[in-house]
Amino acid sequence: MNLSGIGYDVHRFAENRALILGGVEIPYTHGLDGHSDADVLVHAIADAVLGAIGERDIGHHFPNSDESIRGISSLEILRKAGALVAEKGGRVINIDATLVAEAPKIGPHVARMRENLAAALAIPVARVGVKATTNEGMGFLGRGEGIAAMAVASVQLPE
Q1: CATH code of the region 2-156
Q2: Alpha-carbon distance 23 to 110, whole Å?
């Protein structure tokens, strides 16, 4: 059976942190605030994958109260989500995600992001979509206070 899940995440900008999106360090004045590397794109995708199989969100599987995982690469979180799908006898079919931010421009980094995401989920790069848009200057995203991401995941599980 084919199932779908959706994910959403948002992080505010923070000083003195690297900006990591899709497992790629992007040159920028600020990074994102979070317990892990705060990769908002990967967090949304991991939640979409978990949702497709009826699991709880990444906050349940990787709580911010667990100091042993402080600074963890979000790609590890995504690998764990993929492993949970595999434990149920399933596979991730595809993911599609959108970043929402006024800056920085991510176009030059999308190919590497797609490669990282595909590798973490053991799926072909052609099954990974990554896009970006702005918030047209409106709200906290439009004021450049952070970055949000939305994602959809399709998963195939045995009947």
Answers
A1: 3.30.1330.50
A2: 10
